[in-house]
Amino acid sequence: MGQDKADTHKAGDPYPRVILPEARPLPHGLKPSAEPCAACAARVLSLCDAVDQQDLHRLAALTKPRQVEAHRTFIVAGDPAEHLFNITEGVVKIYRLLPDGRQQVTGFLFKGDFLGLGPERTYAFSAEAVTRVRYCRFGRAALHRFMDDFPKVEKRLLAMTANELAASHEQMVLLGRKTAREKLASFLVMLSRRTARLGKREDVVALPMSRSDIADYLGLTVETVSRVFTQFKKDGLIELPTTGRARIKDRETLVQLSEGVDPRSPS
Amino acid sequence: MGQDKADTHKAGDPYPRVILPEARPLPHGLKPSAEPCAACAARVLSLCDAVDQQDLHRLAALTKPRQVEAHRTFIVAGDPAEHLFNITEGVVKIYRLLPDGRQQVTGFLFKGDFLGLGPERTYAFSAEAVTRVRYCRFGRAALHRFMDDFPKVEKRLLAMTANELAASHEQMVLLGRKTAREKLASFLVMLSRRTARLGKREDVVALPMSRSDIADYLGLTVETVSRVFTQFKKDGLIELPTTGRARIKDRETLVQLSEGVDPRSPS
DNA sequence: CGATCTGTTGAAGTGAGTCAATAGTGGTGG
DNA sequence: CCACCACTATTGACTCACTTCAACAGATCG
Questions:
Q1: Are the CB atoms for A46 and A86 separated by under 8 Å?
Q2: Measured from the CB, is A225 under 7 Å from any atom of strand C?
């Protein structure tokens, strides 16, 4: 639904000549220095942490920070898979479509996440910026050559990919065997853990994605997501001060629920 | 349900001293030669294909072919993750359980598949032999040292893991967004492709796993799996000569169905 | 401040689940 | 070889969690 690869800039955009189909380099104030990697807030979370300080300039030479606006689709399934992406800021939604339009969101990516691995010549998925997103984009071949010289990076990438694989198996349990309540509880707990890992308070989680994206991630409909949110509010588990934010009031119960133990009906 | 890690051998087993908790070395006729890897039928399909002929003895030194009987659980979720496995024969079921016993099968592994990656100290999943299974078992640390000397192997493992990740995202689409008919069609087509890849005729697929395993893989119940099989027979899409075997009569329609196009109700 | 999205709530429908009975299937031993 | 048992698969009747369809409410933004 509504992926437009078309032009990225509005009329009057100050960088008409430099525009790429899906993204543009950062504007002046944020222009990459000689060592953007050294200052990158996402480095410790990402692939790039496996590169020693003195080699960072080689990594920096491979890429340039870019940004895309919210709601922009910057990878379209089926396009040639020429690039790999390291998300440095914002939230990205990865999804696949069935021919009739049914959508499955296979993941949300955050600061530090890596994107684009896959052996195919073309992307098997689409990616859309949920918020404004910054990323470093690498050429596939260039990154592979780089990894030949820096085996630690390859090891790190393997570890990250193995992590992803384990996470996706957890998501299969969710999609195949959990109830709507359990699914949404799992989602909230997952976001809460993410938030905590970034050093923020774990009881306030951002929900930048739409209800529809949440539904497509959990294998539900928008209506069910909405109804379960309302249930959770009534049960005193959460508060929803705004649409884009949730406050977790009873974390323990949510965790229990996410693991399949529903205090409402443990029989 | 019913995972017994206990003793693996019957009384009178000729190798009582060498018995490991979950498996035993192959009996005499199949005893590993100096170069078991050179003769391994699964090599070209697996990780080991990335090792040159003259280095195979180093790989062989790391491991020893083993086998487990059908229905034996040889990895239990929560156990220390000391080993990695390369399946050389048979079919393995990987699964996770919710505390109340709900089961999600996250994958079936076949000849050439690799098993055990994951950054954790303990396994996050259980693995059970569906048929008699042969595998090569590696120590985690030993394999990582080996990969330091043979970066090609690490590259291969990364590629294989990325493949797995893509496949697991496809499975998310199946679990989250496909109907029962579409799920079972996808399953049959997947098995058919596997079969073809091993050079066998693609219209006869083996179904060594139980209906219950199939259901737990597809996020359904046994009854629904059974009912849809019956539908497919009535629709002339397949034949089920025995429980453990299916003949595909109308591959084209099954492929269509698996992709979400149901000729019965395209409306 | 109306227009347009996005989210919520309600009423009714349904695909798959549950519960229950029956039919195969394979193994065992007399 | 058959009779029995235990287990797996199939089929049927009924239920229900979630979907669908529809109306409404709240947010966002020219």
A1: yes
A2: yes
